[in-house]
Amino acid sequence: MIRFSHRGICVSDLARSAAFYRECFGFEPARDPGILAGPDMETTTELKGVRFAAPTFRVAGGGPTIELLHFLSPEADGSPEPRSYAELGLFHLAFHVADLDATCGRIAELGGRDLRHTRAEMTQPDGSVRRMQYCTDPDGVRIQLLCVPDVPEGFAHSGIVVSDLAASRQYYAALGFTPAGEWRSGPADRMWMAVHTERPGLTLRAQLLRDDDWNAVELLEVGGVRVDPDRRRRPLNRLGLTHLAFFDDEPRATIGRLTERGGHFVEEAHVSLDQVELHHGADPDGVRVELMRSSRRSR
Fold this sequence. Notes:
The chain starts with a strand and ends in a 5-residue tail after the last strand. The protein is globular. By secondary structure, the chain is of the alpha+beta class. The protein has six helices and 19 strands. Strands 1, 2, 3, 4, 5, 6, 15, 16, 17, 18 and 19 form an eleven-stranded mixed beta sheet that branches. The protein has two domains: about 1-75 and about 235-295, 2,3-Dihydroxybiphenyl 1,2-Dioxygenase, domain 1, CATH 3.10.180.10; about 90-225, 2,3-Dihydroxybiphenyl 1,2-Dioxygenase, domain 1 (Roll), CATH 3.10.180. The mean pLDDT is about 95. InterPro entries: Glyas_Bleomycin-R_OHBP_Dase, Glyas_Fos-R_dOase_dom, MMCE/EMCE_epimerase, VOC_core.
């Protein structure tokens, strides 16, 4: 059985990011393993001399879980600029909000950026208006704010820019996700798309996927602009969204299915700790995927 666990985010200031996600989106502390270090951690992170914190935070009432990775050694690097639609991989976190202005104000006060120039409106088939805007967290993670009539506040999905939507849909099907809606931009969307994406001429195919627990990811296939073909896994100590993690009772079988569907795993990063066995790999576009199984080693 496969169960979605969490989304990872590498941060430069743990206290600042914890306050940001708590005050802006209601994430509360869930588990804190303290400082992690030693040979097994070097193996699983693929980082020499690694020392890092990895507390998790969860929205009360059974909402999504995030893991904030704060590296003491080697320190985190990377740009705090938001990722581009022209880059493959983990792209954004999306939240439904009731008041765009109030949420953007909190984000700016807590160290994020209010990208007000990306605010756009889209008229739905039923005539209602959907408003949306990008902001960032303190380390440049894109956060999409969605204001949709009659949709309650809360987490919506995480977005992934993919090179082949059909291939990625098959890959994530092996992790328990099924299609929950598809959207394709058209000529009528050109104006608001240019504002929201900051990429005139960009087109999108978007496939929403959900698992049985209503965890959602959105696959984004981009057209109209050149997409960088780089599919290398980003280092875990690179600022921003880092990985997707899953509990898996039979990881070896899952690894076989995912490899057949264009992913790969790194056997050298496999470790079995006192409480959990960890496998690390990537989807067809280099998104880090972590499979976790309760370890059989003696406690």
